[in-house]
Amino acid sequence: MEKINIAIVGGGVVGHALAYQLSQQGLQDLFLFEKLSYLGDAQSGRNSGVIHAGIYYRTGSLKARLCVEGNTLLFDFCRQHNVPAKRVGKLVVACTDEEVARLEKLLVQAVANSVPELALLDAREVKKYEPNVSVKKAMLVPTTGIVDAASYVKTLGKLASDKGVSLFTNFEIIDIKAEGEEFLITGLHHGKEERFLANKVINAAGLYSDRVAKMIAPDWQVEIEPLRGEYYKFNRKKHEGIWLNQYNVYPVPARVEIGHRQVEVVGVHLTPTFTNDIVTVGPEFVSIADREDYSKERKPKTFFLETARRFFPKLEEADLQEDFTGIMANLKGQSDFIIKADARYPNFIHAVGIDSPGLTSSLAIARLIATLI
Ligand SMILES: Cc1cc2nc3c(=O)[nH]c(=O)nc-3n(C[C@H](O)[C@H](O)[C@H](O)COP(=O)(O)OP(=O)(O)OC[C@H]3O[C@@H](n4cnc5c(N)ncnc54)[C@H](O)[C@@H]3O)c2cc1C
User: Fold this and answer.
1) Residue 34 CA: which ligand 1 atom is closest?
2) Fewest CB within 10 angstroms: 112, 164, 262, 291, which?
3) Which of 14, 18, 36, 47 to mutate to test the pocket of ligand 1 (most atoms within 8 A of CB)?
4) pLDDT tens-digit profile of 94-115?
5) Are the beta carbons of 232 and 282 closer than 8 angstroms?
């Protein structure tokens, strides 16, 4: 059995950012284990690709702090390593008086979260930014951007492996037990059982982070309730009425009922991409039981059309094409990330419930975890 220093469970963006951060700090003997055949293929490969500014999260929460910090770190990283990323900006739009009131509250929170350069625009000013967007008011958020998430994960992986990190795919961790100060890790590598003895373990298992947590803390009442986000897309060049300059266009966030629970969602939004004038429309979230259910019973096109037309009125049914889905690691009963050392085993670090804005926050999460180990 091989003895190793640090085991990272999960090869999504958080696992990769950690492998990068810890290897840059000179830590040796790092192993990352990913159960799928491709790295970054779960939540990290199926999201809006938005670099969030940090406006949505309760002031003082981990999400608020790590998103604002992560935004700057991610733009800097992408610039330094030639990862496609662009500070395109965002308009958060209000269509009714009630939404205007919520938008104004959101602005107060965004300022308290130290998001810079915000402005409130009236209907006429909005048209200067995006002529095809028709609303009562909007908040301009210039520090929002987009990133090519696949390229970002790949670059993190390359930099980490250049520093000696071992990145395993097809390696599912099935059991972890404390052995004195160390951890006995059992995994299935291409279906064959293998064991390692690690000094430290970091749980970055995304949708399965609750299950990995329970390998070492079976009594911990923590549960991921997966939500599937569904997307459509259109080509902004198809006709003049759906041309978008560059901005992300988001509705005012809302608390909605999905399945049997109340969830705060950012709402179906328009997001530019790096692919030939394609703009995504989504995500609409639905509750699912199976954490791998990417496709069954999707919401109809008309739903996306009506939702987007509230602020983007010239979009036609024929413009929309079905796009991908992604499954979010939503935590039951809690909206913030959980990032902490295990209550009994200080060398076991949990990153649980890393839903949005986990992509944006990834480098800040990695820095935080580096301080914990
Ligand atoms: C629809 C959608 C839209 C989103 N939009 C945005 C956005 O615009 N901006 C933003 O900042 N964030 C966004 N997010 C959130 C963001 O994608 C996630 O927070 C981030 O990708 C989480 O990364 P992760 O590494 O924690 O999880 P994941 O990417 O899920 O990675 C975890 C990995 O662990 C592996 N794993 C699990 N169990 C085991 C095991 N036992 N052994 C080995 N490997 C295991 C999994 O296979 C997986 O690859 C969105 C998410 C979704 C679903």
Assistant:
1) 44
2) 262
3) 47
4) 999 999 999 999 999 999 999 9
5) yes
